[in-house]
Specification:
Chorismate Mutase Domain, subunit A, 3 helices, elongated, Chorismate_mutase-related, CM_II_prokaryot, Chorismate_II_sf
Length: about 100
């Protein structure tokens, strides 16, 4: 089994690819956790109209951008990713709400 190295410790593309693949698996697991919260929100919210909350959406994206700034990664890229993530989460939650 190949040990997963941190980016700065990688010396080969095999190291890099193994690290990227592990991060992708970790991200999928985290997304599954996030979408489980969307299921909970769909169960808890009293009406379908409560699913879309633009103020909360802006707060989530701003929080992600602030965390990106602290982490030293491009805030504009994170903003774009989180825009898509939040919109996908809203669509998922709407579908979950409709199934209940």
């Amino acid at each position: 089994m190949h040990d997963i190295l941190l980016g700065p410790d990688c010396t080969t593309m095999t190291d890099v690819r193994a690290g990227v693949d592990q991060v992708d698996r970790d991200l999928i697991a985290l997304l599954a956790r996030r979408f489980a919260y969307m299921d909970a929100a769909a169960r808890i919210k009293p009406e379908r109209g409560a699913v879309r909350d633009e103020a909360r959406k802006a707060q989530v994206i701003a929080n992600a951008c602030a965390a990106a700034h602290v982490a030293g990664i491009p805030e504009d890229v994170v903003a774009d990713l989180w825009e898509r993530l939040v919109e996908a989460s809203i669509a998922y939650e709407l579908a979950a709400f409709d199934r209940r």
